[in-house]
Amino acid sequence: MLDLTGKNALVTGIANNRSIAWGIAQQLHKAGANLGITYLSDEKGKIEKKVAELVGPLNPTLFLPCDVQNDEEVKSTFETIREKWGSLDILIHCLAFANKDDLSGDFSQTSREGFRTALDVSTYSLVQLAGAAKPLMNAGGSIVTLSYLGAVRAVPNYNVMGVAKAGLEASVRYLAAELGSANIRVNAISAGPIRTLASSAVGGILDMIHHVEQVAPLRRTVTQIEVGNAAAFLCSDLASGITGQVLYVDAGYEIMGM
Known about the structure:
By secondary structure, the chain is α/β, with parallel strands linked by helices.
C-alpha cells in the first residue's frame, strides 16, 4: 500500500487551485505525509493569503515564503525545516517561469535576459533546492520535479521553456547519479498539457489541450490529481528502485507519431 505516514514533504509552486503542485500536495496529504508549503511572496501579500486559504484543509505544519531567485529566502527555508522538523523526506519541485514575450515568435529572438531568467527559475532552482535538501535527507529521500514533452520535442510557442525543461531533465539524471549513494532518489514527471496559471502564458495552450484530447490513446488529457498520484507513488517505498527517470503522465500522448 502507498503510505507516506511520518514523512516530511516540502511542496513548492502552488499558486492556485489549478496548480499541478496543488494536486500533488493533496495526494501526499491523502497518503499521510506531513506537509510544508512554500509560496512566492508579493508586496501586498495577496499570494500568501490565497495559498494559505487553499492549503488550510491540508494542515501544513510549515508555511514559508521561498523565492528561488533569493538565496537568503532559500537558506532560511531549509534552516526552518532543520529547526522545526529536523529532517526532510520529500521535495516537490514545481517551479517554472519564462517571460511571456519569450514564449511566442521566433526562438532565435529570445533575449539574453529572458534566456537567463527561464533557466534560472525553471532549471537551476532544482539543483539549488536539491543541494539544500541533501543534508536534511539523512535517512534517504525522494525529489520529484515537473517537466513537459517540449523538453525533447519542438512544441509551438514553448521556445525557451523547452530548453529549460531539457536542462531540467538532464539535471534530474546528474542529481540522481550524485545523490543515489545517500539513498536519495530524483525523478521527473512529464505531464500532459493542463490549463494552469503557468501554462496560460504559452500561446495556443487550449488548442494544444484539444489536440491531445483527440490524439492521445486515452482520448483525453490528464488532471492535477492524476499527476499527484504519480508523484505520491514516486515518493513512496513502492518506487524504491526508481531514480533518474522521466515518467510520462500524459494519457499516452508521448507514444504517438502523429
